[in-house]
Amino acid sequence: MENFSSEKIDKIKNSPFPREKRGESGVGKRRVYQMVYELTLTSVQLKTGIFNPPAKLINNKELTCAAGMAYRKAGLPMPAAEVGENIDVFRKRCLEECGEIDENLHYVLAGYTAPPDEVVTEDALITLKLGYEA
Fold first, then answer.
1. Statement: residue 17 has pLDDT above 60
2. DSSP secondary structure of 12-73
3. Is the pLDDT of residue 26 over 70?
4. Is the pLDDT at 14 greater than 60, yes or no?
5. Is the CB of residue 128 less than 8 Å from the CB of residue 71?
6. What distances in angstroms separate CA 7 from CA 58, 61, 66, one per listed residue?
7. CB atoms within 10 A of CB 108
8. pTM for this model (two decimals)
9. What is the residue-averaged pLDDT of the chain?
10. Which pLDDT score is estimated for 99?
């Protein structure tokens, strides 16, 4: 997982935004991607922190972010996840391994309904790490 995250981050750092290719000044892709990931983290923090009951998670990136937060709060190491792993299998494993966790995190993780073919993506691995480090 660490190798993937480093590769992905390096790829983002070295990849120019299309406007820059045309000679126009603009925001680099790294900043755009980083902002999207941070918005996912903020969304999960808000959904589990201020709403009662907590708001539902809407995609696999929010789910993995919440899972990272759950593992951290349970005092466990960051979970291993693979691109292509079924997201529902990952979610159930998270609930089993984390045991007694924050009630709101448990609520959103247990309440997530994934389509049968939804899998862990590269972006989901990045938000998993962000959630764990938050």
1. no
2. HHT---HHHHTT-----HHHHHHHHHHHHHHHHHHHHHT-SSPPPP-SHHHHHHHHHHHHHH
3. no
4. no
5. no
6. 27, 18, 23
7. 24
8. 0.76
9. 82
10. 87
SS3 call for 117: coil
pLDDT per residue as tens digits for the range 39-81: 899 999 999 999 889 999 999 999 999 999 999 999 999 999 9
What's the CA gap between 13 and 90, in Å, rounded?
29
Q: Which domains does the chain have, with CATH numbers?
A: 2-133 (1.20.58)
Q: Which of 94, 30, 27 is nearest to 67 (CA)?
A: 94
- Which 8-state DSSP code applies to residue 125? H
Name the residue type at position 41: L
